[in-house]
TrEMBL record:
Residues 1-25 form the Polymerase nucleotidyl transferase domain. Pfam families: NTP_transf_2 (PF01909). This is Polymerase nucleotidyl transferase domain-containing protein. SUPFAM superfamilies: Nucleotidyltransferase.
Length: 26
């Protein structure tokens, strides 16, 4: 459970960073 939660959290943070980069490029 802990490992699975860490993976999901990592993906969520990564997707958030991508969204921020897209907004910056615009």
């Amino acid at each position: 459970m802990f490992v699975f939660g860490s993976v999901v959290r990592g993906r969520y943070i990564a997707s958030s960073d991508i969204d921020i980069l897209i907004l910056v490029e615009k």
